[in-house]
Each structure stands twice: as C-alpha cells, then as structure tokens.
Amino acid sequence: MRNFNFYQPTRIRFGWGGVNEIGRVIARMGKRCLLVTVKPFPALEHVFEKVKSLCIEAGIEIFHFDGVIPNPTNDCVNIGSEMAKYNKIDVVLGVGGGSSIDTAKAIAVGATHEGDVWNYRLGQQRFESKKVLPIIAVPTTAGTGAEVTNMSVIKNPDEKFKSVLADWTLTPRVSFIDPELTLTVPPHITASTGFDAFCHSFESLLNKNASDFIDLLAIDSLKKVIKYLPLAIKNGSDREAREALSYTATLGGISITNIGTTLPHGISMAIGGHVSEIMHGESLAIMYPEINQWTWEHAIPKFAIVGRLFNHDLKNESDKVAAEKCCNEINLFLKKIGMWMNLKDKNVPESEFEAIANDTLKLRNYSIHPRVPNLEEVINLIKKSYKRKD
Question: Which of 105, 142, 316, 322 could serve as a FRET partner for 73 with CA atoms 20 to 30 Å apart?
C-alpha cells in the first residue's frame, strides 16, 4: 500500500432538510453574518429567504451580499470584502454553486486583510490563516465540491487569468449538503456540474500523487455519477439521483483537496480566464476527449478501472483494451448527458490558443498528470478540441 496523508476539517451535515439547522450552528460562531449569493432569481430566491429567516430566528444579524458572478473576479470579491469590513462581519455564509462558495471563501480573507484579494493568490503574498473569518457553506448544485475544498478560485479579468487562494482555513467549518436544494437545478447546469464531479474523482484517481484511500472514494463517486447523472438530467425531481449526486460532489471535493486535479483542470482554468461565458464543466467536457486519447497509454490500470465502471463487459478484456475503450465510453457519456461540444461552439477564439496554453503551464496541474505535456503539446490538444464533431 502506498503512503498517504488525509485531512478533512469540514464538519459535513448531509441529508434532506439539513439546512433547517443552519441558524443554530452559525450562532455558535458569530452574530454578524454575511450571506454571499448571486442575485436572487426564482429557482433559488426561496432558499435565500429561508436561510435568512433561520438565521434571524437564531439571533443572527444578516447582511446580504448578492454580487456573485460566474467565474468570480477579484473586483467582485473586493466589493464583498469591503461590505464585510464595514459591517464588522464575524462569519461568512456562502449559499449557491461553486462561484458563490468560492466568493465567500475569498471574502473571508479579504475582510481581514489589506489590499486587493488577488495579491493573496497561490504563490504570491501570504495571508494570515488565523485572521480568516469562519466560513459556512450551503451548496445548491452538485459538482464543484467547494463545500469541502481548501481553495477559492477567482479570476483577474485584466490579466485574463484564473488562480486560487489556498489554505486549510478556507475549508468551510461546516457544510450543509441538503439534496433538496438541488431539485430545481436546470438540466444543463445539472450536466455541467455533474461532469465536474466526475472529473474531480477521475483526475484524483489518475494523479501522480494518488493514494489507495482516496482511490476508494473516487471510484465510489464515479460509479454514482455514471449511474445517476443521466437520471437527474432526465428528471430533476428524482430524489434518489439528486441525493447520489450531492454525495458524489462531496466525495470529489474531498478527493481533490487531498490529491488534486490534473491537466484537464489546468486547461479548463486557463480557458475560463480568457472566456467568461463558458462554464467550468463545459470547458472540461470540451477538453476531455483529446486529453484522454493522448493520456490513456500512460495510465492503463486506472483507465481500465474506469472503463469497466462504464461497461461491465470490459471485465473480460485485458487492461490495455479496457483502458483504450474507456476513452470512447467517456465520449459516449458526454453525448448522453448533452455535454458533447467543442471550443468553436463556445466562441473560444483561435487567437487565444497560445495564451491559454501558456497559462495552463503556470498552474501545477499539468505536472502531476500521468503524461506531462510541453507547451507545443498543450497547444495541439487545444487545436484538436476546436472543431471536433465526432
């Protein structure tokens, strides 16, 4: 057995109706809470109001920052941080998808530190962990795993670059993972976030730093995504499917927190830095076919495992055959869930390809992929993903 380290400081409260306990839990941490969300809209407005009411009933004063945007920027975070400072916030509550929870995490840093929060991204100026405000998370989608990760992804539009703030204090103190809150998620967002969960587990499995313990979590997560994501897309009210996907998202988040993602996430982050309108799960879906085909021979045992999760008939085939066919199984899965697309479909300009490739190599994800690419290989993978049809 390989040596491994494991740490998960988040207290996970998983289950239907679990969010009803939120006021009582937050009251133990503070009395002035910043609720961080997107602008209210019909599918989630009732959730925001319910959370506010539960907190107020528990004696908590709520201040609502609803300025979260997709691919959250440092400007967005800085505005929320100033609001937190002005109102002397002592606990931050992120309610929504990964963007809302990531914004809440970054605000927890910005509220207690000087200057632009972008200065505290990975590899730059360090922030003081003991100063970070406590964070509570309530995910309303099933995919990003932000409710259990130790990082916050933000974008600097001026630099066209996405990076992360990373520290164990960014891991939420408590996360309320209530599948009921995902019942109104539209089919395409269900597909995009669900495929993100798939990628977290798959890349943790492939990662050069993979561990036997996390492999168990990742494989269990993959089994459930493969089975339940198509069902949730077809029928958003399928409670069994929604519960399973919330569970897989959490497992995927725990997996990447302890192991990390690989090349597809590095390219996806770079794409998101240059094109704001593309969802994270979409950019992953676009890049996976070419990256898998380029990679599988360098990770045959792991690709074989996943190939057999998709197609039980591959149990009778050699690892090499199962691994190669895994690539096609994932392609078929993308088509089944409506995520078969290319960069041209999402208006990613060819003129940005070299810059995207350069930004990919600024993040460490590529270096822990089973096959480590150079700049020319990354550019080639991007080019092949531009007009791909079949």
Answer: 142
